[in-house]
Amino acid sequence: MTVNDVSQPKVKKRGWWPTLKKNVARDKYLLLLVALPVLYYIIFHYFPLYGMQIAFKRYSPGRGIWGSQWVGFKWFRQFFGSYFAGRLIRNVLLLNIYNLLWGFPLPIIFALLLNEVKHAAFKRVVQTISYMPHFISVVVVVGMVFSFLSVNNGIVNVFLEHLGIEPINFMSEPRWFRTIYIASGVWQSFGWGSIIYLAALSGIDTEQYEAAKIDGANRFQQIVHITIPGILPTVIILLILQCGRMMSVGYEKIILMYNTATYEVADVISTYVYRNGILGGEFSFSTAVDLFNNVCNCILLVAINWFSRKVSDISLW
Amino acid sequence: MKMTKDRTMSFLFDGLIILFMLLIVVICLYPLLYVLSMSISDPLAAARREVWLFPKGFSLSSYEIIFENQQVWTSYYNTIYYTVFGTIINVIMTIMLAYPLSRRTFFLRHPISMMVTFTMFFGGGLIPSFILINNLGMYNTRWAILIPGAVSAYNMIIAKTFFQGIPESLIESAKLDGATDLRVLFSIVFPLSMPIISVLILYYAVGHWNSYFPALLYLNDAALQPLQLYLRRILIENTGELSSDMAISVDKSLAAMQLKYSIIIVSTLPILCIYPFLQKYFVKGVMIGAIK
Question: How far is Cα A230 from Cα A225, in angstroms, rounded to an integer?
């Protein structure tokens, strides 16, 4: 430090207060704009973080968040001591693994094949139609699933009847839940999910294909040696993101789909939190379970990112 | 020899791809086409399970029942209300945050960016938010739908990325001419930002139209509930509140089934008619989001 002081010409150093005043004066309109959103973030995103302390307390609405009594790790012990902990974690992981197996590759395959369609208008029409399910609300999708799979008049069971198969009560059979959940999810999201790959595909230099053709490469060789390497970075980034979400599941859909008959395979941490917390009123216990889930998600994302930076130089931040 | 073999293979490949694409089209369209056909078929034909693809006979009786129902109108009105006002709040708040954060010289840029990004990775969770909304007195008011999701960090980043693409020199020269930051926003940034504002409007509006969960948490009063919550009662919980108005000419449960199909069409058709025309904006949003 002292060396620097000697070697450099003396700059008039300001204190932090004049600097701040100068900055505020210069950016006053930006501050004016940002004030309301920042206030929003403090109230609606940071205040709940403060409220999260009830995971270590016995929350009573009368005493408030601060005044409630500390109980340490009681709720965490209660959760991990119960039979639910294992079941919920297993269900979350299995739903995510099946989703990774089906929901992840299908948009890529669809994008690769769509990229091979020569007819531009046909391509555009298929693309538009494939986005459609994305715009249907989750309530309607689940509603359609219920109607189509209904034991009485659902079209699937009518069809099975024609084949001489006994009607199946799909929605209350635990062994069907995961299939239905994943299949309806894939139906809803594969087209939309392919957009990002199509964007990556359109970024591949066409000269590479020309060069490959001159070298005598056929269509399959072009796909394997040019197209697939061209979208690989995108694929890896999305795979990392997906793996970082292994412990979370879209519970808005599960809440619509499950019932007491399918809890054993359908119940996940967030639905359990919703049931016990919002419906059951066990605020502290559910907050503890939710906090455990949040911490898992966070650790997972950081770990996966660290891993991918080590092996492939690709990272999210 | 090799050339002709390659050419026939390529031809075969093209044929297979077209077949595959047709299959995709059928998979995407069939469920909705079936729903539409069932909803406008003759109720008896629908009940006799004669409808597979195209409507049998023609009847709009189930639509009549739906449009005579007061609760349908109320919840439709509520959905439009939340979509319009919610989106206005969303877009204004998102720009108010994204524009300052896009300015490289803004002295609080990094702390505020960090503050927003952190919430994408770690949040307080369901219960603390629920307690907060209750303590703020928002329970069972329209505010509970409009305010808690006012800014989506993801959409804010899309907007910020777009604003950063506006040449700094343009802003600098305006400031040299004495324009304030507000003036820069309104006369330079806005006119150049119509694509991103369209993306924000569309993303937020579709989100509001299709969401049910905040309403399930915070709205107990049927007079305030949006369409999606009403759909949940009809389609999933099977309350039968619609079909009770139905004439008893056909079996009640079958009539209820046709009503379900009709109400799916009534609630979904507006978005399905609009999205193909706005597709390029949606796609643009995904692309900008992908860069980040």
Answer: 9
Is any Cβ of chain A less than 8 angstroms from the Cβ of B116?
A: yes
State residue A4's pLDDT score: 46
Domains detected in chain A: 15-70 (no CATH), 75-312 (1.10.3720.10)
pLDDT value for A1: 38
pLDDT digits (tens, 9 = 90+) for A4-33: 444 455 555 678 888 889 988 888 899 999
Q: Which residues contact B120 (CB under 8 A, 6 or more apart)?
A: B153, B154
Residue A302 scores a pLDDT above 80 = yes
Which chain B residues touch A34 with a CB distance below 8 Å?
A: 96-97, 100-101, 108, 112
Tell me which of B20, B38, B59 is where a domain ends: B59
Q: Hey, are the CB atoms on A23 and B107 less than 8 Å from each other?
A: yes
B270 close contact with A: CB closer than 8 A: no
Question: How many structural domains are present in chain B?
Answer: 2
Q: Is there a contact between A37 and B96 if contact means CB atoms under 8 Å apart?
A: yes
Residue among A3, A10, A37, A267 nearest B94 (CA):
A37
Inter-chain CB proximity A139 and B268 less than 8 Å: no
Q: Which of B147, B253, B271 sits opposite A135 (nearest CB)?
A: B271
Whole-prediction pTM: 0.88
Complex ipTM, two decimals? 0.89
Q: Residue A267: which region, alpha, beta or left (left: phi > 0; alpha: psi -120 to 50)?
A: beta
The residue of A17, A20, A44, A196 whose CB has the most chain B CBs within 10 angstroms, and thus the best one to mutate to test that interface, is: A44
Question: What residue in B sits closest to A279 (Cα-Cα)?
Answer: B217
Question: Between B256 and A295, whose confidence is greater?
Answer: A295
How many residues make up chain A in this entry?
317
- How confident is the model over A152-178, as a mean pLDDT? 85
Tens-place pLDDT, residues A211-245 = 888 888 888 888 888 888 888 888 888 888 788 88
Residue that terminates a domain, selected from B12, B33, B59:
B59
Contact of B25 with chain A, judged by CB distance below 8 Å, is answered with yes
pLDDT at residue B45 in the model: 73
Please spell the DSSP secondary structure of B123-191, one letter per residue. Answer: ---HHHHHHHHHHTT-TTSTHHHHSTTS--HHHHHHHHHHHHTS-HHHHHHHHHTT--HHHHIIIIIHH
> With bands split at pLDDT 50, 70 and 90, how would you rate the model's confidence at A314?
low
Q: Which residues of A touch B212 (CB under 8 A)?
A: 137-139, 252
